[in-house]
Amino acid sequence: YDLFPVLSGTGDSPREVVYYYRGTQVYAIRKGDFKAHFITQPEYGSNESTVHETPLLYNLYVDPSEKINIAEKHPEVILEMELILEEHLASLVPVENQLEK
Predict the structure, then answer these.
(1) Which of 26, 27, 44, 53 could form a disulfide with 39 if both were Cys (CB 3.0 to 4.6 A apart)?
(2) CATH code of the domain in which 26 resides
(3) How far apart are CA 50 and CA 66, in angstroms?
(4) Which residue segment(s) compose the domain that 28 sits in?
């Protein structure tokens, strides 16, 4: 995708949803101003991770540093993000691991 129109303010993004993967797992989803974290890790390079029963939710327009979890205030956004994740995972087609050939 050519991002110049988005970055220059002359066009819209061709993507409505962005998926944040680590390996084969979706850690977070962004849609509009909202980003939901389903899995987090304490620091870069750590192999420990936390799966959140209720995803963490941030409004990146208001809180770009992702410091204020607003999940309790926006259950409708959490539900939407969970549905987006469910649909995305259902749409994936497994492939053979190319590294283990």
Answers:
(1) 27
(2) 3.30.1120.10
(3) 16
(4) 4-93
pTM for the full predicted model = 0.83
**HSE of 72, CA atoms in CB hemisphere, 13 A:** 2
Task: Answer yes or no: is 39 within a domain.
Answer: yes
**Residue 23 φ/ψ, nearest 5 degrees:** 65, -125
Q: What is the DSSP letter of 11?
A: S
DSSP state of 10: S
Q: What confidence score (pLDDT) does residue 18 get? A: 95
Look up residue 95 and give its two tokens: 């492939």
What's the pLDDT score for residue 1? 67
Would 98 be classed as within a structural domain?
A: no
Q: If you average pLDDT over every residue of the chain, what do you get? A: 92
Split into its structural domains, the chain has a count of: 1
Q: How far is CA 33 from CA 9, 56, 91, in A?
A: 16, 14, 24
Q: Decide if 76 is inside a domain.
A: yes
15 is a domain residue? yes
Nearest to 21 by CA among 38, 46, 4: 38
